[in-house]
Amino acid sequence: MSDIIICRCEGVRLHEILASIEDGANSVQGIKKRCRVGMGYCQGRTCQPVIREVLINKLGSNPIDRTSKIQSPIRPVLLRDL
Amino acid sequence: MKQKVIVIGGGIIGTSIAYYLSKNEVDVTLFESKDIAAGSSGSCDRAIMIQSKKPGPTLDLALKSAEMYKTLELELEEDLEYRKGGGMILIENEFELEVIQEMVERQNQAGLDVSIISGEDAREKVPLLSKSIIASTWWSEDAEINPMGTAFAFARAAQKRNAKMELNYIVQGFLIENGRVVGVKANNENFYADGVVVCTGVWTKSLLQSINIDVPIVPRKGEILVTERLPKVIDCNILSGSYIASKLQKGNDNPYGIGLAIGQTKSGTLLIGGSREFVGFDSSTNSTVIREIAKRAVQAFPFLKNVNLIRTFSGLRPFTPDNLPILGEIPSVEGLFIAAGHEGDGIALAPITGKLMAEIICGQNTDFDMEPFSIQRFANMKI
Ligand SMILES: Cc1cc2nc3c(=O)[nH]c(=O)nc-3n(C[C@H](O)[C@H](O)[C@H](O)COP(=O)(O)OP(=O)(O)OC[C@H]3O[C@@H](n4cnc5c(N)ncnc54)[C@H](O)[C@@H]3O)c2cc1C
């Protein structure tokens, strides 16, 4: 169970996310910084809700505070098309 | 009894100081309002670039720090993605060549054997470089590191030596008795110590204002583009000479302070920066700036046209008016120390800052002239 992949872009597994929270991470940002979850091609579009849920499960409190802010671009874009 | 010290701020500077203090057998508690590397140290580039530093106190400090980085992975027993791949400053026209030539001469006089190589030689080192690059500098000693990883590693190494990392603790003020700091107030609780060191980067000014100490540190924003993962295409640190030249060119206004800086992370993404903007604490990214940086990147590396941008971010550099960090004791309050204001060099300067500050806080002699970094230099300045 702790071996299931949460973030496919970066190949991050559940136990790495749990270890990040254990290490003191208290936000999606904090987990990202510790294990690269959500930092890949899709920028956490798929895995962020799951990470948020794990966080709330472990630490409780307001899910809004714990979200990672959305940074442009919304989707990958070729540098020549900017 | 062990000396007890409180470190405020869990960026690369605070965690480095906590580590070197813990190595000196000090009882350390670090208070961080959010998380390790939640500030500038988690939203920056990864260069330990020495060749671009002006000869003088910062260059001397940076050289010592670069030396320490060479063995830091061994010392902290962690992979910090350290690589000494060298560095180049790209030259696109005759004017830039002239400016950079003068700069290289100054570096040579200061003892750095930076050289200027031809466009062909530059393309030999970095094959995807544009044909429009006529020359570049080269110095094999420039290096890079994962800055977040390094801050976390310093924190963990300090914890192994019994330092405490108190995350989610906002320091609200200082406890001062008879002109001496005896602790801090954090999350509405008092904590006592023999000394306190302030490592709060761009937030230092407002924190020290609470005890009427004026610190002229202001945020200077930098925006960065992140591409999709690529195979290894860039193996060294790359800056463009146009930013350096534009500062000397009249009428060449560069309102966003854009200067190209490119490097590749271990995971394969390219980090493409950057800008230098005084816009207070606004950390949003600006599409005009992003577009302009992308344009310059494609100019220098035409293959980038077909590469995907996946993310942009911005960070705040702790800028001081004379571009030197503020390091040392604050004379008006005994036991209160500051290590902040490293602007765009904080990653490069972190190990030496930690080591020197630990020595100063423990009352040891440092083998480095700290005078140029003293907060006293601003005493007569109208801020
Ligand atoms: C875009 C960009 C690119 C850069 N590139 C490079 C580079 O290539 N090489 C290089 O050497 N440098 C680079 N820098 C500079 C470098 O990032 C900074 O100099 C360095 O991170 C500063 O570290 P710090 O620990 O002083 O500050 P920070 O990392 O900001 O740490 C300060 C910490 O203090 C905490 N804090 C604030 N107030 C309080 C409070 N009241 N109580 C408790 N905690 C508090 C904050 O949450 C924060 O975590 C770059 C910077 C930017 C913005």
From TrEMBL, chain A:
CDD domains in alphabetical order: GlpA-like_Fer2_BFD-like
Pfam families named in the record: Fer2_BFD
Domain BFD-like [2Fe-2S]-binding residue range list: 5-56
Cleavable signal peptide: none
PANTHER family attached to this UniProt entry: GLYCEROL 3-PHOSPHATE OXIDASE, GLYCEROL-3-PHOSPHATE DEHYDROGENASE
Protein name, as recorded: BFD-like [2Fe-2S] binding protein
Protein source organism: Ureibacillus acetophenoni
Automatic annotation (TrEMBL), chain B:
Record-linked InterPro entries: FAD-dep_OxRdtase, FAD/NAD-bd_sf
Keywords: Oxidoreductase
Domain FAD dependent oxidoreductase span(s) in chain numbering: 4-359
Pfam families assigned: DAO (PF01266)
SUPFAM superfamilies per record: FAD-linked reductases, C-terminal domain (SSF54373), FAD/NAD(P)-binding domain (SSF51905)
Gene3D superfamilies xrefs: D-Amino Acid Oxidase, subunit A, domain 2, FAD/NAD(P)-binding domain
Domain of life: Bacteria
GO cellular component labels: cytoplasm
Record GO terms (molecular function): oxidoreductase activity
Keyword Oxidoreductase on entry: yes
PANTHER family associated with the record: FAD-DEPENDENT OXIDOREDUCTASE DOMAIN-CONTAINING PROTEIN 1, SARCOSINE DEHYDROGENASE-RELATED
Protein name as it appears in the record: Glycine/D-amino acid oxidase-like deaminating enzyme
